Amino acid sequence: xxxxxxxxxxxxxxxxxxxxxxxxxxxxxxxxxxxxxxxxxxxxxxxxxxxxxxxxxxxxxxxxxxxxxxxxxxxxxxxxxxxxxxxxxxxxxxxxxxxxxxxxxxxxxx
Length: 110
Hints:
The protein is globular, with a radius of gyration of 16 Å. It has helices at residues 2-25, 34-46, 50-69, 71-107. It has 4 helices and no strands. It is an all-alpha fold.
């Protein structure tokens, strides 16, 4: 019941954040705070994939959370920390396919 609803809400929140990241933040180099902003900076400086940056930093922060905050607090963060970078990757891939199809149809004058 309630636990499943909370998990679904975390998933929805991660999806919305990943859409905002791929549609607004990353393309226009808007630097939000936290892991997302650092990922955009690393992409600009070193051409490092944002998905990888967010995933590595999230894993590091989960480890730090486990050490300092304990198991219970960390477990609540695991779903979001894993889903957010995965959604970033998936939405970015979908956006690339969408852009390709859009450009292709424009070229064909469809």
